[in-house]
Design a protein that fits this description.
With 272 residues, the protein is mainly alpha-helical. The chain has helices spanning 15-48, 61-73, 76-108, 110-124, 132-139, 143-167, 171-179, 184-218, 227-236, 240-268, and strands at 3-4, 10-11. The protein has a two-stranded antiparallel sheet with strand order 1-2. Helix 3 packs antiparallel against helix 4. 27% of the residues are buried.
Length: 272
């Protein structure tokens, strides 16, 4: 039953915030249990199931976690992380510059969709890694081919999500803008872009995951810095505990990037 104040009006108990807080705590606890189980499986596969002196034991968490702590304390890891993040940001920026306008065009025009959609679907089905030799031949060795490949991988979820957002716009909004004699730019800036923002951010989140997955093989194109290069370097030095530590760093940063994208969606487009 609800409590009653001095005026006789019912007062609702603040149970909903407490329930939401308890739900978030339970969700976080379940996530930690899942991560602990994953760590236990890793340890069991390399330390319990693997034979004594086998090659698999070199990848054990017993060796990788201390190596991770040493890398975090040193400067080298952070240089590679900064280089990789810069490349991903450039690739995502290029993908946004290309994907959002093309998505708006395809979503708004049936003729443009008929003309461009088959070509885009064809290109989308080609793995970005297939372009690696061509990218190096055309753009040379360095950041340029890596950023191109990351942009190529990231543009498709942004483009398709933006086009889907345009098609799902409430047509009454567009009719209202016409009735108010809004210009094309005013309609775009005040109706269309706010209306598709949630879809664009969702596409961006997918693009971040795709770019982060493609990044490591792209950074094996002969560059001298980046997490992909660092993995090759640890392999060549036979530092397998550091190799596994870098793999953990890649997973943690990717998880953090996805969490940041989800937080951005909740803040800017709660209904997405």
């Amino acid at each position: 039953m609800s409590a009653v104040d001095h005026s006789g009006a019912p007062v609702q108990a603040p149970a909903a915030p407490a329930l939401r807080s308890a739900g978030r705590i339970g969700h976080a606890a379940a996530g930690l249990v899942g991560l602990a189980l994953l760590l236990a499986l890793w340890w069991g596969a390399t330390d319990l199931l693997a034979a004594e002196g086998s090659f698999a034991r070199r990848f054990s968490p017993v060796a990788a976690l201390p190596a991770l702590a040493a890398l975090i304390a040193g400067p080298d890891l952070w240089v590679h992380v900064a280089v990789s993040l810069r490349r991903v940001l450039i690739g995502l920026g290029l993908a946004l510059l290309a994907g959002v306008p093309l998505g708006l065009l395809i979503g708004a025009s049936r003729l443009a969709e008929a003309a461009l959609a088959p070509a885009f679907q064809f290109l989308r089905m080609i793995s970005p890694l297939s372009w690696m030799p061509i990218a190096v031949l055309v753009l040379g060795v360095g950041d340029a081919p890596i950023c191109f490949l990351l942009a190529f991988a990231a543009v498709w979820p942004i483009l398709l999500s933006t086009a889907a957002g345009v098609r799902q716009l409430n047509p009454h909004w567009l009719l209202l803008s016409r009735s108010l004699a809004a210009t094309g730019w005013e309609t775009l800036l005040r109706i269309i872009l706010p209306g598709v923002l949630g879809h664009v951010l969702t596409g961006l989140r997918l693009a971040i995951g795709t770019s982060w997955i493609v990044l490591v093989p792209c950074e094996m194109l002969g560059v001298q810095a980046g997490l992909g290069y660092f993995i090759l370097d640890t392999r060549d030095r036979l530092a397998y505990e550091q190799l596994m530590a870098v793999v953990l760093v890649i997973g943690v940063i990717g998880f953090a990037l996805d969490g940041a994208a989800r937080a951005l969606i909740r803040r800017l487009a709660p209904g997405a």
